[in-house]
Design a protein that fits this description.
alpha/beta
Length: 905
């Protein structure tokens, strides 16, 4: 980074143990009488520093700096900000399609006569392979080895491709499988808090292709999840454009009560913030409660920002940050740089200085109580005594119907020794970056296991137990504390180092369990220390899923059911024949703290992360195929060149209206990216399953949707394929089906290859519509696209022929992804919904836009229903910035970037 400019006289030197570094001083603005830097939220200061350092009069102007410096917390000027991140982080599910797109861009560049080497990451990119391992084997000392072996066999094509990318692209590093979860690796190893390049120091910052990138906010690093297409643009040197965010201050004070955990705290915060409404806002934590809150606890809270809907959940840098950097073995010079830089730049939290926030929420930590969340959404917190009531309230009708059906059928014979009932826990998983990064809750789980073994308890036979640490350091400290042996004895052997159950890689239930679930229509439960429990995500056989702390996961495995009040009911009988209660095996806060202090040291981190990219021999043995360009194999069912850049014209066409479109999917509120683009199992009778079978892939080798994101042919067929999707266009159905409405013509709609009114797979209907040139529409309710930041939820939507999505509201990342794929997002005016407007999904839609389209403008939609009845209504265009409008005009972000590269070629 050459220092050839000095905006506002801000360039200065800071002395550190590593020598002098150059900084772009924020207080130079104060000295120049610009803004009120001292009062800004810390997260806004980081955005301000990026603008100041990157002023070039083209992408970033001095007016951008002045605008942020004058940030008005109570009345935010919603202008567009260009933010240049220091780095990008990927996980393999979302990373593979990113690399596929880059490979496709290289191929397109070559075909157009340009230089393929121009398609290369400009900023450092790290990809951590953590999403591919599955809980196939469990409850065995060989589970880890066999699951890793299966992982490499199952994902050979993907891993060969990533090895090619590692070699072909500059600034692209890969952390091999069986190392840990991306966010935990980021927290423990990759993040620097303060970066340096060419002698210039600046705050570490990033975007990631996983919504839980926000976990790094707990370390004082600005970062959030974006769609893969946005991340690719950042990788290629583009700034990320965001509308200046509102910042909600969240004041914490007091201390957690005995018996509560960081997980209980984050579930309480998630419930509070979801209720308040923080979508597209930053949340910044402050107050006396932070002074003794560890970075691990902060990271647990920051991790779940997507669940409470915020862009970030930010904790400023302070003494706790330095303690964590020291604990995790960071270099002493780097730690000194962090302290010196943050204090000089006003980025250091001081207990007696509070920023000005537009809104402030508060929580007394002592009021937090033991809780779970579920059975379908992470914001639905339930206090521990009410879990039984929650299950009954949510599934009473389903259980009753199943019981009547079973009675009419004469019951179901149970041939196995293990009989499964409604409310039984069939999955108990210690999993997910949210909790496995936190030694206090992990050690608490180990201590619960120890006390349970000593009492003579064991997990119930129908429970699939699993332990998926977020890094190998967890195993090190479990072993040092002598806790792993107790976890092993109750079935929590290590099954792999990855996300696993939390992302749907729970693996199949034992056949004698799943057979009973299917035969008796059982509503069974999963209890996991994860962050997501949306319908159909964890396991196709498990309808009720509850998020819980790791020690509560162990407790529910011992109890074997959620039809219990663990606050007062016995968890089981001990070896002495006496009832054992949760309080009898629950460790005290002192026990947990003393164990954590005695079993973790910096050497564990330095040993595990030293030469981390070269430690996995199976990874090292993978051959590298291809050179500058990847050799796409048309027979591959994992990696294909996507059609996004086929026949790309040098210039984009003008924006045109959308005429005679028909609704493909109509859904209600809170439809997630899991519903739109599932990551879990591929059903044999689904369009994707049939495609794979026809390609010669046996059902046992289907792998998951997440693993096949490098193949658009699978992923397009899997769009809207979630088994729990409720498409209101086909009432009474569940799963990826729709009603085919016929092909519009001058006389209404006509049947073609599919009979009008037939209920068919969404993919089949889409292909028939596209064959006849019919553009398609999605109608949705509130928070459309909430959940994981899956680019395929937008890519698949586009490839299904959808050109406009009309919703009551969009979740931040999905809205951005839709624009990035050239799909027009519109929202109803306040107070209006599909229901109030009389929209039932039938009829043809005309969307009145043209090349004069502006961000945020009103857009008229006209619907012609049966017998010529017209419904006309006004929507708001959720293309939010001029840059997004440019993306939309070009057909997407990547098309925009590629055209710019070609012009400069």
């Amino acid at each position: 980074m050459a220092i050839n400019h000095n905006p506002f006289g801000s360039v200065s030197k800071i002395n550190t143990l590593a020598g002098d570094v150059t900084a772009y001083r924020l207080d130079a603005l104060t000295k120049a009488g610009i803004g009120h830097v001292d009062k800004l939220p810390f997260s806004i200061k980081v955005l301000l520093e990026s603008c100041l350092r990157n002023v070039d009069g083209f992408v970033v102007n001095e007016s951008d700096v002045v605008g942020v410096a004058n940030y008005n917390a109570t009345k935010v000027n919603a202008v567009e900000l260009p933010f240049k991140v220091a780095r990008v982080i990927l996980q393999d599910f979302t990373g593979v399609p990113c690399v596929v797109d880059l490979a496709a861009m290289r191929a397109a560049m070559k075909r157009a006569g340009g230089d393929p080497q121009k398609v290369n990451p400009i900023v450092p990119v790290d990809l951590v392979i953590d999403h591919s391992v599955q809980v196939d084997e469990f409850g065995s000392e060989f589970a880890l080895l066999n699951n890793i072996k299966t992982e490499f066999q199952r994902n050979a094509e993907r891993y060969e491709f990533l090895k090619w990318g590692q070699k072909a692209f500059k600034n692209f590093g890969v952390v091999p499988p069986a190392t840990g979860i991306v966010h935990q690796v980021n927290l423990e190893y990759l993040a620097k808090v303060v970066q340096t390049k060419d002698g210039v120091a600046y705050p570490d910052s990033l975007v990631g292709t996983d919504s839980h990138t926000t976990m790094i906010n707990g370390l004082g690093v600005v970062g959030w999840g974006v769609g893969g297409i946005e991340a690719e643009a950042c990788m290629l040197g583009q700034p990320i454009y965001l509308v200046t965010p509102q910042v909600v201050g969240f004041k914490l004070w007091g201390e957690l009560s005995e018996g509560t955990t960081a997980t209980d705290l984050v579930l309480a915060i998630t419930q509070i913030l979801r209720k308040h409404g923080v979508v597209e806002k930053f949340v910044e934590f402050f107050g006396p409660g932070l002074s003794h809150m560890s970075v691990a606890d902060r990271a647990t809270i920051a991790n779940m920002a997507p669940e409470y809907g915020a862009t970030m959940g930010f904790f400023p840098v302070d003494d706790q940050t330095l303690k964590y950097l020291t604990l995790t073995g960071r270099d002493a010079k780097q730690i000194d740089l962090v302290e010196r830089y943050c204090k000089e730049q006003g980025l250091w939290r001081q207990a007696n200085v509070e920023p000005v926030f537009g809104e402030v929420l508060e929580l007394d930590l002592s009021t937090v109580e033991p809780s779970l969340a579920g059975p379908k959404r992470p914001q639905d917190r339930i206090s521990l005594p009410n879990v039984k009531k929650s299950f009954d309230m949510n599934f009473a009708d389903t259980v009753k119907a199943a019981t009547i059906k079973a009675a009419a059928a004469g019951g179901v014979a149970v041939l196995e020794e293990v009989e499964v009932k409604h409310a039984d826990v069939v999955i108990a998983a210690i999993t997910s970056c949210t909790n496995t990064s936190n030694p206090s809750v992990m050690v608490a789980a180990g201590l619960v296991a120890k006390k349970a073994v000593e009492k003579g308890l064991k997990s119930k036979a129908h429970v699939k137990t699993s332990l998926s640490p977020g890094s190998r350091v967890v195993t090190d400290y479990f072993n040092k504390a002598g806790l792993q042996t107790y976890l092993d004895q109750i079935g929590f052997q290590t099954t792999g180092y990855g996300c696993m159950t939390c992302i749907g890689n729970s693996g199949p239930l034992p056949e004698h369990i799943s057979d009973q679930v299917e035969a008796k229509d059982l509503v069974v439960a999963g209890v996991l220390s994860g962050n997501r429990n949306f319908e159909g995500r964890i396991n196709p056989h498990v309808k009720a899923n509850y998020l819980a702390s790791p020690p509560l996961v162990v407790a529910y495995a011992l109890a074997g059911t959620v039809d219990i009040d663990l606050s007062k009911d016995p968890i089981g009988r001990g070896k002495d024949g006496q009832n054992v209660y949760l309080k009898d095996i629950w460790p005290t806060a002192k026990e947990v703290a003393e164990t954590v202090a005695s079993c973790i040291d910096p050497a564990m981190f330095t040993n595990q992360y030293h030469n981390v990219g070269e430690k996995n021999e199976q990874w090292n043995a993978i051959p590298v195929k291809g050179g500058e360009l990847f050799n796409f194999d048309d027979a591959s069912t994992y990696i294909q060149e996507p059609p996004f850049f086929t026949n790309l014209a040098p210039e984009p066409s003008p924006i045109k209206g959308i005429k005679s479109a028909q609704v493909l999917v109509m859904v209600g509120d809170s439809v997630t990216t899991d519903h739109i683009s599932p990551a879990g199992s591929i059903m044999k009778d689904s369009p994707a399953g049939k495609f794979l079978l026809n390609a010669g892939v046996g059902a046992i080798d289907f792998n998951s949707y997440g693993a096949r994101r490098g193949n658009d042919r699978v992923m397009t067929r899997g769009t809207f394929a979630n088994i729990r999707l409720k498409n209101l266009l086909a009432p009474g159905t569940e799963g990826g089906v729709t009603k085919f409405l016929g092909v519009p013509n001058a006389h209404g709609s006509q049947s073609v290859g599919i009979e009008t009114g037939a209920v068919v797979p969404i993919y089949d209907a889409s292909m028939e519509y596209q064959k006849h040139g019919v553009p398609l529409v999605v109608l949705a309710g509130k928070d459309y696209g909430m959940g994981s930041s899956r680019d395929w939820a937008a890519k698949g939507t586009f490839l299904l022929g959808v050109r406009v999505a009309i919703a009551e509201s969009f979740e931040r990342i999905h809205r951005s992804n839709l624009v990035g794929m050239g799909v027009l997002p519109l929202v109803y005016k306040k107070g209006e919904t599909a229901k109030t407007l009389g929209l039932d999904g039938t009829g043809t839609y005309d969307v009145l836009v043209d090349d004069t389209l502006k961000p945020g403008q009103d857009v008229t939609v006209s619907v012609t229903q049966a017998e010529g009845k017209m419904i006309t209504f006004t929507t708001t265009c959720r293309i939010d910035t001029p840059v997004e409008l440019d993306y939309y005009r070009n057909g997407g972000i990547l098309q925009t970037v590629l055209r710019k590269m070609l012009k400069g070629a």
